[in-house]
Amino acid sequence: MSRRLLLRGARQLLTLRGPSGPRRGAAMADLGIIENGAVLIDGDRVAQVGPSRRIENLVEAVGAAELDVSGKVVMPGFVDSHTHLVYGPSRLTDYEIRLAGRGYEEIAQAGGGILASMNAVRTWAAPRLERQAEVAMSYAERHGTTTIEAKSGYGLDAASEVKALKVAANVGAVPTFLGAHAVPPEFEGRADDYIDWLIAELMPQIARRKLARFADVYCDRNAFSLEQAQRYLEAAQRHGFLLKLHANQFAALGAAGLGVQMGAVSVDHLEVIGRDEIELLARSQTMATLLPGSVFHLGLDRYAPARALIDEGAAVALATDFNPGTSPTCSMPMVLSLACARMRMTPAEAITAATINGAHALKMGGEVGSLEPGKRADIVVVDLDDYRELPYYFGVNHVQWTIKRGELNAPKAG
């Protein structure tokens, strides 16, 4: 007999139920709220959702274990669709150098930056990396994240990229192959040759072994050019990968437009994006995934134009960009606070972007991101009276319980 759990008496039950595709425009403000709501879980799936009085009197609810969520907000678990989860140690030297006002080149000269994480991923054994990733996953879950993506891109050689993708899968993340993250020392000054090597040698191995569903490329100033990114993505498409791009973070090279042209699932960052590319995104199926945590941690002022993207009709998602260099946070509630305070998203829009739209940014909209019968029972119980308090109290974790695949976990404070 499968286990059943009844959550009853929610002050606000945010179902996020709605159309099958990602939410756009005014639809991002519709959270599908049920006052005094209940959710019946059967095994790892949502069985029923509705008013408490109806759900608790269903035949299927008889004998179910009960969780009293009276006075609380109940909502889908967060879907964090962009992280660099497997990286080794923190980059504290980078942090201090940046706080002293010095830039990327000086950090690199001091042995920091992406290459510092590369050295750790190459030298650490898989079990050690797995422990690091599991700790990060546990913090994310304490803050309400139930689905998380994890990129490679800190190994930058065949053995280490494979190792990172296996670690990501082992800890339950959705793996993304980011071989084109930076040029490793072996190819210094030969970015084209590195792209050729990825296409000819590493990418076919990743595809053959089914180690990743997505392929990503970092197309920006001091990263890979538009032409290099296109070659990499075309090869990834031939191998059956779904496409993602790090796009328009520091320079407008046309990466967002390239993503739309190639049918990418998402283009991520978008701090430097103009009207033409905003309109392209609004007319496309490509998600705009915004990452305000990295802007905040770098001490920059230019956040992605969320308001313009939403008003134009683009499908907007939010993610942490969790990584040791530019966004060391696992907290989706903090990302919601930044989205509201610095990008002028409404609390409802931010929650939509961090749940159902995040799910669509991983091509998982039919599985997670909303509370509807048949979907995975990934649920967060927040000890607040009103969902708007979630971004309002920045830097505070109000998650009381996280339910992942029907299993109840009581996270520690912090």
What is the gist of this entry?
The protein has 414 residues and is of the alpha/beta class. The chain has two domains: 4-76 and 370-409, Urease, subunit C, domain 1, CATH 2.30.40; 79-360, TIM Barrel, CATH 3.20.20. The protein has helices at residues 52-55, 92-99, 104-109, 114-123, 126-142, 158-170, 191-208, 226-238, 255-261, 275-282, 292-297, 306-312, 332-343, 347-354, 356-360, 389-392; strands spanning 4-14, 33-42, 45-51, 65-68, 73-76, 78-80, 145-151, 174-180, 214-219, 242-247, 266-269, 287-290, 316-318, 379-382, 399-404, 407-409.
What does this structure look like?
By secondary structure, the protein is an alpha/beta fold. The chain has two domains: 113 residues, Urease, subunit C, domain 1, CATH 2.30.40.10; 282 residues, Metal-dependent hydrolases (TIM Barrel, Alpha-Beta Barrel), CATH 3.20.20.140. The chain is built from 16 helices and 16 strands. The strands form two sheets. Strands 1, 2, 3, 4, 5, 14, 15 and 16 form an eight-stranded mixed beta sheet that branches. It has an eight-stranded parallel beta sheet with strand order 6-7-8-9-10-11-12-13. Helix 6 links the parallel strand 7 and strand 8. The longest helix is centred in the middle third of the chain and has 18 residues. The chain is globular. The two termini are 36 Å apart.
